[in-house]
Every structure is written in C-alpha cells, then in structure tokens.
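Reopening this ticket.

The earlier resolution said the output was attached, but the attachment link was broken on my side. Pasting everything inline this time so it's all in one place.
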Amino acid sequence: MTRKIAQQKSFEKALYAIEGNFPPGKTAGDPRFTHKYFDMSQSSGPDALPEVRGAWNQGEQWEYISARDQQSAVDGGSGLASVALQPMEIKTLQQMAARGKSNPALDAATGAELGMAERSQLGDPIGEAKAKTAKSKEQSQEQSQEKSQVMSQDKSLEESTLSLVTGP
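Inline output:
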C-alpha cells in the first residue's frame, strides 16, 4: 500500500505541475481512452497473484482490457512513435507544449498527503497543506508574470524585426 500512496502522490504532483491542463476537466481527455483500464500487471506461474478487480478497474465506467494483443497500438497506429505535421500543426503543437509545460516549482498538496497525516504527529496537516499549496501557487503566479514579460518583449522584438525586413 505504501508504494501505491507514493505513486499517487507522485502522479498528482505531476498533474498539478501541468497548470494549464489540471485539474481534470479543464481539458477533456481523449474519449477513446478515458474509460479503458489496461491490465498491464499480469503474472503467471506458481507464484502468480490472483487478478483483483474493484472500483478502479470494473463497472459500467470501465472497459477492462487484459488481452496483450489489444494493449499495443491502441490508436490504430503501428505502435512506434511517429509524427507527420503540417506547418500550422507545428505551430499548434508548440502552443500546446507551452501550455502543458510543467512547473517544477509547484508543490501542491495531494490527496494522499492530506489523507495519510495524523493530526497528533503533524499538528494541522490540512492547514499546513493549504498553506503550502497557497505559497506554491503564489510562486507559480510570479513565474507566470515573469514569463509574460519575456513573451511580451519577444513579441516586440519580433515586430521590430518584421518592420525592419518589410519596411514601414
């Protein structure tokens, strides 16, 4: 269980660091995959553990996929990384990359952190977590302001360069 808690904390922090796309619902997931559970932890042999199902991988909201031949190239491709983009798509991709860029300074409190702390040991973990999140968001906002200033300067430089090349 400890490993799962660590994975949850790590995963949540990674999601929170992608500020433009998190919390979930800000940007919709691909509906072809948002309700699929790929059973990638299969084992066999005398020491194999039994398959366990629960709310995380069964029910009306899940399509459970355990067959290995159905777990690769699920988007219809070859399964290998490949990209062919038109110039306009490259511009869109660059915008998406900027939006989805992680903020390594953001250290938001996760549900796992809130749930595993005992008040007797840590005082007020929820209050501390909220304060930590608020401080992290403040730092993030400062970084965003700095980034906006740099982008504004870049745009001014680009416009000046364009004016020099094309004339007034």
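Reporter confirms the inline version is readable. The mean pLDDT is 75. The radius of gyration is 23 Å.
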